[in-house]
Amino acid sequence: MIVISLWYPQSSALLPRIPMLSDQLLLGILNLSLLAIPAERARERLQAAASRDPLTGAWNRDGLARFGADLVGPGAAVLAIDVDHFKAINDDHGHGSGDDVLVAVADTANSLVAPQKGAVFRIGGDEFLAILPRCDAAKSRQIADRLRRFDQGDGLPDCTLSIGIALVETPTLDVEAAIRSADDALYRAKALGRDRIHLVTA
To answer: Can you supply one Gene Ontology CC term for this chain's record (predicted)?
Structure first.
């Protein structure tokens, strides 16, 4: 906090100038406050950029830590998404093609999740999370199935997705526990042969 003291001189010759000096002082304070607004906006933009994955535009782990918990509660669905045999895609087709696959998955996931007021996070190399704050079993399966059939377009290598879904029912379940349940469902989908969806309740 800045404390400003105004000194009023005893000399009557300076008294007429005091209102003008006060106005100039107030104008200076106003200018300083206006300068702080762009700085605050720049800080907010930097913070938002730091919470985004630069390749796919999805939220990253920092974004998940910032507001993931706000999306998880009873009635929410957490989807753990993994590109099957992603290392082989990079090895056989090059990392550029692998990046294109990740961007296509993220774009499709965002197009499906955003209308549900949810969010998509990239939490690892080929691992994504989608959190939908209000989504029942039928709707979450529908979204996951549409995501599995994402448009790979011309030039993208053929690939499949495994998706684990955790439907949150426990009122006290935190976001970390919900993600662990979705991960367990994902591992089960992979164990059953990949290219499929597995759903659990949490």
So the answer is: plasma membrane
How many distinct helices (H) and strands (E) make up the chain? Answer: 6, 5
Tokens of 44: 């907010």
Identify whether 23 is a catalytic site residue: no
pLDDT digits (tens, 9 = 90+) for 185-196: 999 999 999 999
For 166-199, b/e burial (b = at least 16 CB within 10 A) is bbbeeeebebebbbbbbbbbbeebbeeeeebbbb
104 & 23 share domain: no
Q: Do 105 and 177 reside in the same domain of the chain?
A: yes
pLDDT of residue 30 exceeding 50, the answer is yes
Active-site entry in 53, 82, 100, 126? 126
| pTM for the whole structure | 0.78
CATH number of the domain encompassing residue 111:
3.30.70.270
